[in-house]
Description:
The structure is a homodimer of 196-residue chains. The first copy, chain A, has 196 residues and is mostly helical.
Amino acid sequence: xxxxxxxxxxxxxxxxxxxxxxxxxxxxxxxxxxxxxxxxxxxxxxxxxxxxxxxxxxxxxxxxxxxxxxxxxxxxxxxxxxxxxxxxxxxxxxxxxxxxxxxxxxxxxxxxxxxxxxxxxxxxxxxxxxxxxxxxxxxxxxxxxxxxxxxxxxxxxxxxxxxxxxxxxxxxxxxxxxxxxxxxxxxxxxxxxxxx
Amino acid sequence: xxxxxxxxxxxxxxxxxxxxxxxxxxxxxxxxxxxxxxxxxxxxxxxxxxxxxxxxxxxxxxxxxxxxxxxxxxxxxxxxxxxxxxxxxxxxxxxxxxxxxxxxxxxxxxxxxxxxxxxxxxxxxxxxxxxxxxxxxxxxxxxxxxxxxxxxxxxxxxxxxxxxxxxxxxxxxxxxxxxxxxxxxxxxxxxxxxxx
DNA sequence: TTAACATACATACAGAATGTATGTAAAGTG
DNA sequence: CACTTTACATACATTCTGTATGTATGTTAA
Lengths: 196, 196
């Protein structure tokens, strides 16, 4: 079983990301020691620093993988309808529910902005998981579904609202109930922007 | 000029909080070294650990002071109207604009949840700066101003939206312009919850 | 008023964690 | 087949938090 350098690299990085993702989400970034990560991944500090350069670099890789997973689910869910308004609502709810299910909220929403800085975090968020939201809103405004309003402002308001919703739901004892409450509230919230 | 223990304590703590607030907001929590903080405050590590117990303890004290400042401004602003609906809008805008002005967003919104944990951060936020939002919404619902909706859910949605708005505005080149856009958007957003 | 005590620090040190410099074996390349 | 690059391992330097201990000064009660 000979391995090419490329395969080896891919495999080592993947393993490190997996292990790090687990530890970052359970202990938080600050309390996860590189020493433990490499030990559990079966390599040494050398491998980690060779591929990721720093602890922050590793975190960024982990964050990207989490964002991508959620982004894919949102996209798939939104595509289930033809009506733009319905697509928007479906996408929002898909984001909230899939982010809640995923036990990586800490990486995605809590440590993310703090560790890599808000600007970088925002850029990554937009590229991976929030891209469609902005596009969807832009399209809807062009087609006259929305009242006149700054799309950038609206995008951030919605994004912030949903992120906080995810964290809140995760803290409540009855996820299903609070998810329903959030769904209702988001639907009403969006109603405010519907062109009359 | 003899100083009582109580005075001395008060003075040292205040000075440490001031210095720490400066460094936390400029360099971020992780990159602010206790050594530098105590040096700049003119005391030693002993004093810091005596009063605050840990770096996290110091941060929590700093966060509380920032939250209190903003909370006071929000309260004052909201009290300028008699109409509940107007009060709500005034309070929201006061929060956003005063948090934007304040150059401690990093402490308040970015490092806060990460350093002391989201649950603790939320509790502090509710006690200091977001308390009135929830109360205001509750009152308004009782008086029939709002559609039937979970107040908890709504509170978190609004809070999250505004926090994100603050960060976004801070990043834009023209604060005044983006603040206006956010104001419009928030007003529309709230409109969705108005009882018909 | 003075002995006993508590408080507010200072100092030195221990422990842990990140990052870096250097070495090495294997794969890739001309 | 020489030689270069890559993917690591290992040892070490640095830095930072937290703790243990010492001390001077203010406070309190007999």
